[in-house]
Design brief:
homodimer; alpha+beta; 60s Ribosomal Protein L30, Chain: A; 2 domains; six-stranded mixed sheet
Chain lengths: 316, 316
């Protein structure tokens, strides 16, 4: 199967089925063309997943496609952006039809779920690497940034944290319990907070998606904003399944492991009070911003490296 | 060296030095933000280069960076787009400082030459794979497409073809002659036709950049346009160096080998006549569009596969 045949069979149908009115020209020419409406800015982010680094060898390709698009789309959520389209750069050791068929299926399901149309891509032969770039739009000047956290702001997170990190322990489990299945679902099929991100646009003072663990990602907000924060370990939202599976370690998973793709945002107390209750219900207040730099975690005994996953940290 | 340290040292300076007024937010947040002016459409393309497939093992990283950005920028040229910015997804086996330093230098030189600002990226650990996505803008509805070639249009190409393909024979040459150096330069440091592409916007009926060889790329135009073409082998522009080095094979290199990143365009005879002479001087008329599908090459004895480089063609 040639490169063009491969694209025609597995990706062109996806492009047709997930078309967006903003996508003037999709795959098949030298470039794709996107119309950005007047009064909107383009926001975009690129994410790479490498076999053996970001996902295990022989990981099912439908799940891989979903996770890859979810990870990229989560960056749009963190900017408060409306999703539009994405490109796929796929490097593959061989053109295996069943692998490609499942990959294409998972990608289409995720694209439909997240509202992202396939705009173009590049397929090449090589080690298995998936790079996705997602495009969204925000009202001009309204994108959520990392650098706006102010003293006195509340620190909030969406959903429950730590599940996807704990799931790594159970990937090879032949007969997972119901609790294991619950956290595995969070790992295999994360749901980026796209609607919530847009609802917090113009309200949150800073935002980031939690891809490397709460501690590492909140620290990015603190550094970019030139402030510090104090959070309470007991306030960090944990799923009952995670607590039952990992006991006292549940908070460690939430602080240190990524892949949950929840949002961490800061906002002034008045902004929090003014939020509609259905949005507040998706968030937990876990602490507040303080002038003194650094992250302080009350009620947590951990002393080891608080940082999350860093793909180069172990290297010289 | 951690991932963030690596970005800070080798890529943040590049971002600062090549800033574009259209790039509202560059690297360092969850997404980058680009402002697309009213009356313009965004055009974008993604390209991947894999070690051992698109470039040899131990290929110098400054040249790799230039070639990767040139290959991607060439797609902007083929759309007649004005370059704006790009993202870099870089997968690396290790964070080697001298490799990264040269890569960053080559990338900056190319970015400055092509008018592209670094908007964001992702660095990960893995086999050496470089994925670049370039962004440009065109006046609304004015992007050059592949599908507009009409019966009677002239077929033109820019520059000379085949040099980069022939250069592959001399990559390991310890003491290259002047002619070898000339074709090697075309391979190591291709110059996408960005200005020419913009000048042909609104004039050419179809356009493509020659990345897979003239025969394969012109066939993309023919298929997309539902037409055929007849071209004359003797009219294909060849550099004196290529002719001296490869003799009768020079036309084969021009037809079959890619990496030259010249443009192939079609345009009505009246459009050709109306072009300013400085633009006509950059183009050679090599044939014309005909109703009968397929590509006919007059005065060429080649009978083997006329197609260019296809990364999956040899696979099952």
């Amino acid at each position: 199967m040639g490169e063009f045949e491969l694209i025609r069979r597995f990706f062109q149908p996806l492009a047709g089925r997930s078309a967006s009115s903003s996508l003037i020209l999709g795959p098949g020419d030298d470039c794709a063309i996107q119309r950005v409406p007047d009064g909107r800015d383009l926001v975009f982010s690129v994410d790479t997943l490498v076999e053996g680094v970001h996902f295990p060898k022989a990981y099912p390709s439908d799940k891989l496609a979903w996770r890859a698009l979810a990870a990229a789309a989560s960056d749009l959520a963190a900017m408060g952006a409306e999703p539009v389209c994405f490109t796929l750069a796929l490097t593959l050791p061989c053109a295996d039809e069943s692998w490609l068929s499942a990959f294409s299926r998972g990608l289409f399901q995720a694209a439909e779920e997240f509202g992202l149309a396939l705009a173009g891509g590049d397929t090449t032969r090589g080690p298995l690497v998936v790079t996705l770039q997602v495009h969204g739009v925000v009202p001009k000047g309204q994108g959520l940034h990392r650098n706006g956290a102010k003293n006195g702001d509340l620190v909030c997170v969406s959903g429950c944290l730590g599940d996807a990190g704990a799931a790594l322990e159970y990937l090879a489990e032949p007969d997972p319990t119901q609790d294991m299945q619950a956290v595995l679902q969070r790992y295999h099929q994360p749901l980026p907070r796209l609607a919530l991100g847009q609802q917090l646009s113009g309200v949150a003072s800073a935002a980031i998606d939690i891809s490397d663990g709460l501690a590492a990602d909140l620290e990015h907000i603190l550094e970019a904003s030139g402030v510090g924060a104090s959070i309470r370990a007991e306030a960090i939202p944990l799923s009952p399944a995670l607590v039952r599976l990992t006991g006292d370690q549940a908070v460690d998973y939430a602080l240190r492991s990524g892949d949950d793709y929840e949002l961490c945002v800061t906002l002034p107390p008045a902004g929090w009070q003014a939020l509609p209750s259905d949005i507040r219900q998706q968030l937990s207040v876990i602490g507040s911003i303080e002038p003194e730099p650094g992250l302080r975690i009350q009620g947590w005994q951990g002393t080891a490296d608080q940082h999350g996953f860093d793909h180069f940290r172990s290297m010289s």
